[in-house]
Amino acid sequence: MSEETIFSRILRGEIDCDEIYSDEMCLAFRDIQPQAPVHILVIPRKAIPSLREAEIQDESLLGHLLLVSAKIAKLEGLNHWRTVINSGSEAGQTVFHLHIHVIGGRKLNWPPG
Fold first, then answer.
1. Where are the domains of the chain?
2. Which letter does DSSP use for residue 89 in this model?
3. Using CB atoms within 10 A as the burial measure, which of 23, 46, 47, 53 is most buried?
């Protein structure tokens, strides 16, 4: 069983979020600590701690998350954006429920960190 996270509480409706998109596979909402003018998180409804724990049966879910990320970026009016998946604490992951950051609305430098 997966560890309880703030995202599992958001998915259950125990914590409010600024929802952008929702379907049977995922939920997208604005990050409460945005790093750019547009900073949206896309999370699967299935509890997967990180990309490292994703399995072959998650293949269509992972593709769906990326397509939703692109759809949301376009809906937000972004012509250029960054999608980020942090895997593990040393990579910057702080919530251990797989999530995609959709970041844009300003010039993004490289390398990021």
1. 6-104
2. G
3. 47
Q: What are the residues whose beta carbons fall under 8 Å from the beta carbon of 85, sequence distance 6 or more? A: 51, 98, 99, 100, 101
How large is the average pLDDT for residues 29-36? 97
The pLDDT assigned to 1 comes to 44
**Model confidence at 2: pLDDT above 80:** no
64 is catalytic: no
Instruction: Write the class of the CATH domain 6-104.
Output: alpha beta
* Secondary structure (3-state) at 3: coil
User: Residue 19's beta-bridge partner residues?
Assistant: 29
pLDDT score of 113 more than 50:
yes
Backbone angles phi, psi at 7, to 5 degrees: -70, -35
Report whether 78 contacts 70 (CB < 8 A).
no
